[in-house]
Every structure is written in structure tokens, then in C-alpha cells.
UniProtKB/TrEMBL annotation:
Organism from which the protein derives: Candidatus Kaiserbacteria bacterium RIFCSPLOWO2_01_FULL_50_24
Protein name, UniProt field: Amidophosphoribosyltransferase
Binding site for Mg(2+): S283, D346, D347
Annotated CDD domains: PRTases_typeI (cd06223)
Coiled coil: none
Cofactor: Mg(2+); [4Fe-4S] cluster
Keywords attached to this entry: Glutamine amidotransferase, Glycosyltransferase, Iron, Iron-sulfur, Magnesium, Metal-binding, Purine biosynthesis, Transferase
Pathway participation: Purine metabolism; IMP biosynthesis via de novo pathway; N(1)-(5-phospho-D-ribosyl)glycinamide from 5-phospho-alpha-D-ribose 1-diphosphate: step 1/2
PANTHER family assigned to the protein according to its UniProt record, in alphabetical order: AMIDOPHOSPHORIBOSYLTRANSFERASE (PTHR11907)
GO molecular function: amidophosphoribosyltransferase activity; iron-sulfur cluster binding; metal ion binding
């Protein structure tokens, strides 16, 4: 998963890009990069780590101009930690400098590799850039349209030229991408609407699937790059887990949706013996609050607290690193745990590392019972569209074990998952959404 933030025609563009990327830091913590434009040249600064760690004041001073494109990334493939793999990637189209940032994952890379056998990186993003560089159309939008029609899979992307910014989404609309307009007629492009709110966008709308939004000094216009109709496949996991609670994703407000998931989870998977409902913080908080709404399965009480900023453990690059991060990630309030029957609500279970250690710690601190409720169906299949679950030691616990075996493995008194049918009832426009990681049905 990655985060994109672009700024066009705004003073202190690089600084604004840092702010916008930081507000989406939950999407990726491994690498960060920014390319800026002064109308003639493009300038790049990047490095490994979080946005705050990477960008110093000296680096920002070197990012000149009123336009900028930023990207945060964690790898969707086994990755060699190399600075050349940090987006945005730079290249040239008809002798004009360009920079590209991409969120998603292309599924026809074998075919594209035959077209582009020589690459400098291991990124699928480079296929897009190199093919675009070969196009000889007179207008960049025509060249990009021809390029995008060659791609399969998931992509939301932004392309920066010296005096233009283009945002585009794949025909399936798999990953979110939004455009905002600032008060002083500047423009913003972001993977999530939370960043647009932080940066003061006055109006916000989603880039439509199969469309490009072109932004230059004259304003903004939208064009479709294909007439071939494709089924929409909006990622449901964005709403369950990834986006910030203050974001709207595919027209769905994330906080409202997660509270509804929690309420439905309690309705279908109650725990009448519990005293306390708590969460795996912070991504499970809203689901737990929803679960505790009626009080039938315990009162909501946060007893586990997260140490910021450790990051999201399931996207860490190795199992040993995930174990270390879980140990450092949480503090527990012992006085509220002793003698209690506790329901722990999580948004999802991917590898099971976090929940197993939490259950063990709660027992160690004196909980009488520990029950686990999960506001998502079992994640039984790897994602092919931009969520990293395929590391060398990557594993999906629900692919290896049934529900009872998972319960035994994590040491809980009981465990229950939200049924897929219930998720589809709550998630708007489910028939046009992707549930591949829960069903194994790919597109």
C-alpha cells in the first residue's frame, strides 16, 4: 500500500506535500520521496523511513517551485532496500522531465517486461514510466492514455510535468484517489481525503475510474482514457482497515462504516459473559465502540494503549521484525484487566502475530477470560492489487488454520469473525467491490 500527495500552483508546495504525506503515514512507512517543479526543472529528495525522518529543512530548501508530487511506500514485492526504488520516479517524455507516483499493483508485469526488458528498478511503476517515455503523441494526455490502456490490475497514479499535473485511476477504481481545490485556486491530489482536509481543500471529488484529471494554469479538466467498460472492484479493505477514520473512501465515511461493522459484529457474534469490550488499538477502536453500543456484550473500556509511532505490524518486512514491533507497540492498564472477562475487537486478522501476543498479555495481567471478535471475514488469500502479504516469511493464518485452530493458536476462550454476507450488506455498492482477500476470487 502507498500514499500519494500532489500540490499544484501553491506556495511552499514541498512543505505542503510533507504535511499531506504525514497525514497519510498510516498507508506506508518504509520509504518517502518528493519531486518538485519550478516550471522548468524537476527536483527530487527521498529516503528510507517515515516522512518526518526523511525530510529535513535542508532537503525542503532544495525542492523549489509551486508544484510537487510526493509518495510514501511499502513494498508490494520482496524488495532490495535501494534508494533507486523510491518513488516518485523521474524520466523524460519528448525531452520534457516528468515524475510518476503510483499506488496499486499491476498484474500483467510479465507481458510488460517483454516490452520494457531494461529497467533500473524492481518497481512495476517503472513499466508505466518507460512505456510512456516511448510514446510519440503530440499531447501528453494522449500518450498517457495509450500507456494506461496497456495496463492490467490496480493503479491510482499522479504524473507531474513542469507545468502540469495529471491524476488517473484504473478502470476498476480499485484504489482511491481524490482531487481538492484550495481557496487560492491551487490544486491537490491525494490517496485519501483526510490529507485534503488537513491542507484546507475547499471542494473535493474522486477521480473517476478509467479517467484522467488534467490540471494546469488554466484550471482542471477530466477525460476518459478508455471506452471499454470494466467491472468496478473497489477495495473493501480500504474501508475496513486502511484509510484514516476521518477519510471518505468511495463515498463512504470510514468512521461511520467501522462503527456499523462493530454493531453488526455484536449482533451476529455476541459475548454475553463479558464485562469489558476493548480494542486492538488504534485500528480496532471504532469497531470496538460499535460492538459495545448495546452493552449486551460488555462495556467499552480501553485497556490497551498504542505506542506511536511503531507502525502497522502486518506490513512489517519480516516475521522477526513483526514480533519485535508487537512487543514494543502496546501498554496495558493492569488494574482494569484483573478479574475481568474481556472481549478484544480487532478490525481484521492477517497473520495473527498481534492478537496472539495481546491475548497472552491479558491473561498474564489477570484477565479471567479473553474472547476475540473480528470485524472482517477471515483473510484467506493474498492480495494481488497492492497490499503486501507475500513476503518471504509471509503467512495468512486463516489460510493455514480453521477458526477453531486459530482460537487455539492465539489462546483465546472464543473467536468469531464477521460473516462475509453481513459485510456485503453494510459495505455500500458491494456488487462493485473487491473481496478477493476473503474469497480468492480475482479479477
Amino acid at each position: 500500500m502507498c500514499g500519494i500527495l500532489a500540490v499544484f500552483n501553491m506556495r511552499k508546495a514541498a512543505e505542503l506535500t510533507v504535511i499531506g504525506l504525514h497525514s497519510q503515514q498510516h498507508r506506508a512507512i518504509d520509504y518517502a520521496g518528493i519531486v518538485s517543479s519550478d516550471g522548468t526543472f524537476l527536483y527530487k529528495e527521498c529516503g528510507p523511513g517515515t516522512v518526518r525522518k526523511v525530510f529535513t529543512s535542508e532537503m525542503l530548501d532544495r525542492l523549489h517551485g509551486k508544484h510537487a508530487l510526493g509518495h510514501t511506500r511499502y513494498p508490494t514485492l520482496d524488495d532490495d532496500p535501494n534508494r533507486i526504488n523510491i518513488q516518485p520516479l523521474r524520466g523524460y517524455w519528448r525531452d520534457m522531465p516528468i515524475a510518476l507516483a503510483h499506488n496499486g499493483n499491476l498484474t500483467n508485469t510479465d507481458e510488460l517486461a517483454r516490452i520494457c526488458p531494461h529497467r533500473k528498478t524492481s518497481l512495476d511503476t517503472e513499466f508505466i514510466l518507460r512505456i510512456l517515455e516511448t510514446r510519440q503523441e503530440q499531447r501528453i494526455e494522449d500518450a498517457l492514455a495509450e500507456t494506461l490502456r496497456m495496463l492490467k490490475g490496480s493503479f491510482s497514479l499522479a504524473l507531474l510535468l513542469p507545468e502540469m499535473l495529471i491524476a488517473a485511476r484504473d478502470p476498476h477504481g480499485n484504489r482511491p484517489l481524490s482531487v481538492g481545490v484550495s481557496e487560492d485556486i491551487g490544486f491537490l491530489v491525494s490517496s485519501e481525503t483526510c490529507a485534503l482536509s488537513v491542507l484546507g481543500a475547499q471542494s473535493v471529488y474522486d477521480v473517476p475510474p478509467a479517467a484522467m484529471v488534467l490540471i494546469d494554469r488554466s484550471g482542471m479538466r477530466q477525460i476518459s482514457y478508455t471506452k471499454i467498460a470494466s467491472p468496478l472492484k473497489k477495495c473493501s479493505f480500504e474501508g475496513i482497515y486502511f484509510v484514516h477514520p476521518s477519510s471518505d473512501v468511495y463515498g463512504v465515511q470510514a468512521t461511520t462504516f467501522r462503527l456499523a461493522l462493530g454493531r453488526a459484529l455484536e449482533e451476529h457474534c455476541p459475548c454475553p459473559s463479558a464485562n469489558i469490550v476493548t480494542e486492538v488499538p488504534a485500528s480496532g477502536t471504532l469497531h470496538a465502540m460499535g460492538y459495545a453500543t448495546t452493552g449486551r456484550s460488555g462495556m467499552y473500556m480501553p485497556v490497551i494503549f498504542r505506542n506511536n509511532y511503531v507502525g502497522r505490524t502486518f506490513i512489517a518486512s519480516s516475521q522477526s521484525l513483526r514480533d519485535e514491533e508487537v512487543d514494543a507497540k502496546f501498554n496495558f492498564t493492569k488494574s482494569l484487566i484483573v478479574g475481568k472477562r474481556i472481549v478484544v475487537v480487532d478490525d481484521s486478522i492477517v497473520r495473527g502475530t498481534t492478537i496472539r501476543k495481546i491475548v497472552s498479555k491479558l491473561r498474564e495481567l489477570g484477565a479471567l477470560e479473553v474472547h476475540v471478535r473480528v470485524a472482517c471475514p477471515p483473510v484467506t488469500h493474498h492480495c494481488n492489487y497492492g497490499i503486501y502479504t507475500k513476503g518471504k516469511d509471509g503467512r495468512l493464518i486463516a489460510q493455514e488454520m480453521n477458526v477453531e485452530e486459530i482460537r487455539e493458536h492465539i489462546g483465546a476462550d472464543s473467536i468469531a469473525f464477521l460473516p462475509l454476507g453481513v459485510l456485503k450488506e453494510i459495505w455500500p455498492d458491494a456488487e462493485n467491490s473487491c473481496f478477493s482477500c476473503m474469497t480468492g476470487v480475482y479479477w
